[in-house]
Amino acid sequence: MTDDECAAVEYPIDFPLKVIGVDETDFEPFVVEIVRRHVPDLLEENIISRLSSGSRYRSVSFQFIAESRAQVDALYSELSSHKRVLMIL
Q1: Residue 26 and residue 67 in contact, taking contact as beta carbons nearer than 8 Å
Q2: Torsion, CA 46, CA 37, CA 65, CA 72, rounded to 10
Q3: What average pLDDT values come out for the chain (89 residues) when binned by 10 residues?
Q4: Torsion over CA: 39, 81, 50, 24 (sign)
Q5: Are 15 and 64 in contact (CB under 8 A)?
């Protein structure tokens, strides 16, 4: 998405997010804790965790209402600052 396309997004918006990392026992709670700092009203039923077919990686998916571009930028910034997070979609 280009900056022009991002600027055209009107908030609040239904926002999907997927975070991928090596499957470790605490990866899911680690990611959920970060997301909840930015989305405090995140509902438990909007969190889906899946193990990869080779059982090496775990994806944690979220669906939430993003209130602003600043909120999304801060969330992406914090998630991407951790070496445990391999990919954010």
Answers
A1: no
A2: -120
A3: 65 97 96 98 97 96 97 98 97
A4: negative
A5: yes
Expressed in percent and rounded to 5, the helix, strand and coil fractions of the chain are 35, 35, 30
What distance in Å separates the CA atoms of residue 76 and residue 82, rounded to the nearest whole number? 10
DSSP H helices in the chain = 3-8, 27-38, 69-80
Place of tokens 């998405």: 1
42 CB-near residues (< 8 Å, 6+ apart): 32, 35, 36, 62, 64
What pLDDT is recorded for position 9?
87
CB 88 within 8 A of CB 17: yes
